[in-house]
Amino acid sequence: MSTNWRWVDEDQTTVTCGDGRYIPANPDNLDYAALVAAGTTIAPVAVPALTDSDVTREYERRLLAILEARDLAHAAYIRADDTDELMSLQAMSSRTTEQETRRGELLARRASIETLIAAYNAMASPPPADFTADSYWS
């Protein structure tokens, strides 16, 4: 048997040697039992290296959550609408309680997005393994 065995998953339910063979990690499976009996070392799961694209996807996920948008095009529409609405509210010489509340909501959302953008721009490349943690984005 090959000497380059690796776990396929973090739960260690299957091993592979990279040549297309997959063996369930079941003691009743003769191939797996032979690996164990031979004292074969099984390498940990190969975790792909994180890239800037991973960070971009996390940024986009967070932006969509802030805006409650279904996709990036919808997010752009909401941001443009927010800007128009905020400009209208800011231009008023006096505002009702509801209008002042809405103005505060729009300003808070804008601040959240600015914080998100700043965090995105400050993210190291390559990103740290735990880059999805809130501590990197707030």
How does this model look, in words?
By secondary structure, the protein is an alpha+beta fold. 51% of the residues lie in helices and 8% in strands. It contains 4 helices and 4 strands, in the order βββαβααα. A 4-stranded mixed beta sheet has the order 3-2-1-4, with no helix packed on it. Strand 1 (5-7) and strand 2 form a beta hairpin. Helix 3 packs across helix 4. The longest helix has 26 residues, at 97-122.
Notable features of this structure?
138 residues, alpha+beta, 4-stranded mixed beta sheet, rod-shaped
Any low-confidence stretches, pLDDT <50, length ≥5?
A: none
What strand order characterises the main sheet?
3-2-1-4
The biggest beta sheet reads: 4 strands, mixed
Structural class: alpha+beta
